[in-house]
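re: ur question from yesterday

yeah so i grabbed the chain u mentioned. its 286 aa long if i counted rite. heres the sequnce exactly as i have it in my notes:
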Amino acid sequence: MQQPSYIDYRPGTTRRRSGWTAAAGICIALVLASTARADQSADYVIGAQDVLSITVFNQANLGGKYAVEFDGTFTFPLIGPVTAGGMTVRSVEAEIKSKLTDGFFNNPQVTVAIEQYRSQRIFIVGEVKNAGSFALAGDMTLIEALAKAGSTTQTAGDEIVVTRAGAAVPAGAPASSDVLRVNLKDLQSGAASARNIQLRDGDTIYVPRAELVYVFGEVKNPGSYALQSGASALQALSLAGGVTPNAATNRLAVVRVVNGAKIELRIRLTDPIQPGDTIVVPERFF
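ran it thru and got these structure tokens back, copy pasting raw so excuse formatting
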């Protein structure tokens, strides 16, 4: 049977390559990605109430699910109490293998995986649909955590603050190893994949509310609105339901606080506005 093939269209080449070779490359990439994720899970530090799934090759009666007690141990057949609390998955595998080798089996093959993550928690607060405490599932990332909280609300600000356990969050503090700041727009668009950080036990994710702008005058729904930074006057007017037929959009004004003093500026629809601005839409003379 003839092998399927495809044309390599990369610059400088038009040679035909084997379809089986391409498929093999894809398989290798998938295996490498799966291996990398497994390695991260193997470094997970086990805690009380985690449930372990343990398999011993060719010894089905030894395998099963084992809950870690509050003292950090669980009881395994033939061995008795095994200390798991504070140890990585890989370390527990090695410990069980060592004890089974000592008088029971010759080179037993042991696999330990996390069946249920219960010991480690993260906290998500602020402008998310379902704020609260969530189990930290292995190598959970920031995007995965926000998804668990139902994603951000429409009033969420531009920035997400991730605070490591024990760190304070002073207003305007720069990013550090304890306080991490991530741009929400970049995160959602995938432009900041490097900032899709892997979370740790005890992390608190805070999604602040977007700062407000105020729209008054000849608009359909005057009031205050949460608006992302860099938004234009036109976007603010859209949130207010648009202008009325009597609006004079060529005479828009904004009241802004500068160095503690209020000033009034003429603006165009395309001009950016700032948090705290008050946009005034005047009435037409005729």
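noticed a couple things. The CA atoms of residues 79 and 108 lie 13 Å apart. also The domain at 51-116 is CATH 3.30.1950.10 (wza like fold).
anyway ttyl
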